[in-house]
Amino acid sequence: MTPARSVPLYDDDEGHVILSVTVFGQDEVPGLDALTEHREADGVRYDIESSSFDETDAGARADKLNDAILERVALLGPAAEALHRADVWVRFFVTLPRGAETLRADTVRALADVNATLWIDA
């Protein structure tokens, strides 16, 4: 459990978080067949469910973010082996409010299982 904070880090911090997940590959990625696929000149792009939420309480925000990441990792589960191909790139792009955020160890391991690169915009 993440330690809770009852006040935001900054007075104007509304706790807005955006998470988007995209998989890029030169060729189709088996196991992602049910997800939205876009053909591009240099390969295939899969846009996985995006999410956003507002949470000013840091502890609750961390829990929501970890849950959102794990939900998207689960969508990638059927393709886990193929996501480790050299031509595949998995991007978890997270936009965070100012300050710090916490990812649990199990979330970090789950990201590694699907070969994810974490992009953070804070």
Which strand order spans the largest sheet, edge to edge or round the barrel?
Answer: 2-3-1-4-5
Q: Largest sheet at a glance?
A: 5 strands, mixed
- Tell me the span between the first and last alpha carbons: 23 Å
Could you report the average pLDDT, rounded to the nearest whole number? 87
Topology pattern, helix = H, strand = E: EEEHEHE
Q: Helix- and strand-based class?
A: alpha+beta
Q: How much beta, percentage-wise? A: 25-35%
Cα radius of gyration in angstroms = 16 Å
Low-confidence stretches: 1-11
Give an account of the 3D structure.
By secondary structure, the chain is α+β, with helices and mostly antiparallel strands. The chain is 23% helix and 33% strand. It is built from 2 helices and 5 strands; from the N terminus they run βββαβαβ. The chain has helices spanning 58-76, 105-113; strands at 16-25, 37-40, 43-54, 88-95, 116-121. The protein has a 5-stranded mixed sheet with strand order 2-3-1-4-5. A hairpin with a 2-residue loop joins β2 and β3. The relative contact order is 0.26. Residues 1-11 have low confidence and may be disordered.
Keywords:
disordered N terminus, 122 residues, alpha+beta, 5 strands
SSE topology:
Layout lengths: L15 E10 L11 E4 L2 E12 L3 H19 L11 E8 L9 H9 L2 E6 L1
In short:
By secondary structure, the chain is of the alpha+beta class.
